[in-house]
């Protein structure tokens, strides 16, 4: 045998082994990345609750066990806040229903026209009472969004009337009637909807629900004026950030890809604004100029859009002033009705530092519960076994379960005990 042949026989058996090793290493690397990205090793757990020990809270935790039981997301992808958020954003909800409602138009003093959709209950409420959910969706959202439709359909079947605000300018087929659209904390349209419901249904009681930006609006609305809390049984806020001023810094960071989400949301806001270009920038619009329009085209963040466009709708002198005055953090301590504040620890849009606001509030106010889930993303909260999520989410179910418990508390509480002051003991009757 020649030396060349001997060399071939000596080296060639090692080559397949080397390639097999590289394949195994590549597969191991991919699996490691998948496990890390999908957060598969993360445990499931009940929500972390912050509250004061009061008769009302004890009753709510007993009557709403979802707050104390494990939230279990779909096994393969549900522990990733990014995938929960992305699937909610792109797919909405599984088998989304189409509730039938009636659209209402409310003229505002400045010439704007607020719209909301009204959905009557599909059955009797378990207490026999007339209860209306007044709902404020997330940024640029409206009653036709999948997560709103799913929640409304479920609430109707539980005996609730639902009124859903369509953010000013959010509906693509509704033209603006004044040079103004929705902003981060403007409560005018929501107040008009609530006023309509109170006047039209004088016997109804209200459940206030806000999602994301809508959570900021409803908490600010209730805290702005004590009269706004009349006939309100409770308020539920899901996935809001509480302070735009504090949030703006975190939105410029790449941690949890927030800068990327910021860009996507800014791009969506651009499309909404430009779809109403004639109303906002046309002749007679007053506050907007051609320079503002050119800056809008080049904006790559929500902060740039807020500074160049949004703050000017209400004549705020600076971006800081706009964020300060439109954030519920300065009003929420005035809310005395029962409050359920829900956030997710893996929400890529809401930085952990912002969660000290609801946690501190729940530590100080006896009417507040702060529930922080380990998983859920931003308005995701999908539930399911392995791959396919259920049509109803944990978010849908926990809001209705909490409000059912509040309604039951109102029916059976002692006459001297109010849901807003549950810690006050009953005095003994004198003969």
Uncertain ranges: 28-33, 420-431
Distance between the termini: 120 Å
For the biggest sheet, the summary is:
9 strands, mixed
Order of helices and strands: HHEHHEEEHEHEHEHHHHHHEHEH
Mean pLDDT: 88
Strand tally, please?
9
Structure description:
By secondary structure, this protein is an alpha/beta fold. Helices cover 40% and strands 13% of the residues. It is built from 15 helices and 9 strands. It has a 9-stranded mixed β-sheet with strand order 1-9-8-7-6-4-5-3-2, with helices on both faces. α14 links the parallel β8 and β9. The longest helix is centred in the first third of the chain and has 25 residues. It is globular and about 60 Å long.
Strands, helices and their partners?
Layout (H helix, E strand, L loop, with lengths): L2 H9 L2 H25 L9 E3 L4 H9 L17 H11 L10 E6 L5 E7 L11 E6 L9 H12 L3 E6 L21 H13 L4 E7 L1 H12 L7 E7 L5 H7 L7 H18 L1 H5 L8 H9 L3 H7 L10 H8 L12 E6 L11 H9 L3 E6 L20 H19 L19
């Amino acid at each position: 045998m020649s030396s060349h042949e001997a060399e071939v026989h000596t080296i060639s058996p090692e080559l397949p082994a080397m390639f097999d090793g590289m394949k195994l290493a590549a597969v191991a690397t991919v699996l490691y990345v998948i496990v890390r990205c999908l957060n598969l090793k993360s445990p499931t757990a009940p929500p972390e609750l912050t509250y004061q020990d009061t008769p009302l809270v004890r009753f709510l935790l007993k009557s709403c066990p979802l707050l104390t039981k494990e939230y279990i997301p779909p096994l393969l992808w549900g522990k990733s806040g990014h995938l929960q958020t992305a699937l909610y954003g792109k797919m909405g909800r599984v088998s989304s229903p189409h509730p039938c409602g009636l659209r209402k138009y409310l003229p505002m003093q400045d010439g704007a026209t607020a719209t909301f959709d009204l959905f009557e209950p599909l059955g009797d409420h378990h207490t026999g009472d007339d209860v209306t959910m007044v709902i404020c969706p997330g940024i640029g959202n409206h009653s036709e969004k999948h997560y709103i439709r799913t929640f409304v359909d479920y609430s109707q079947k539980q005996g609730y009337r639902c009124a859903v605000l369509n953010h000013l300018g959010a509906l693509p087929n509704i033209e603006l009637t004044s040079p103004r659209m929705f902003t981060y904390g403007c409560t005018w349209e929501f107040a008009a909807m609530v006023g309509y419901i109170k006047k039209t249904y004088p016997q109804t009681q209200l459940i206030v629900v806000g999602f994301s930006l809508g959570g900021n609006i409803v908490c600010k609305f209730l805290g702005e004026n004590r009269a706004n809390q009349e006939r309100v049984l409770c308020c539920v806020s899901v996935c809001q950030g509480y302070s735009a001023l504090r949030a703006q810094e975190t939105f410029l960071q790449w941690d949890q890809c927030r800068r990327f989400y910021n860009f996507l949301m800014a791009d969506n806001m651009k499309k909404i604004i430009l779809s109403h270009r004639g109303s906002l920038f046309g002749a007679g619009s007053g506050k907007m100029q051609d320079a503002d329009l050119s800056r809008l085209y080049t904006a790559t963040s929500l902060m740039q859009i807020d500074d160049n466009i949004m703050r000017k709708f209400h004549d705020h002198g600076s971006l800081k002033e706009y964020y300060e005055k439109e954030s519920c953090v300065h009003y929420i301590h005035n809310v005395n009705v029962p409050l359920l504040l829900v956030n997710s620890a893996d929400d890529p849009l809401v930085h952990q530092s912002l969660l000290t606001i609801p946690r501190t509030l729940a530590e100080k106010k006896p009417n507040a519960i702060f529930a922080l889930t380990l998983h859920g993303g931003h308005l995701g909260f999908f539930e399911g076994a392995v791959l396919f999520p259920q049509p109803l989410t944990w978010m849908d179910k926990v809001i209705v379960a909490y409000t059912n418990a509040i309604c039951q508390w109102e029916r059976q509480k002692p006459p001297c005990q109010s849901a807003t002051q549950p810690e006050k003991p009953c005095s003994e009757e004198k003969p």
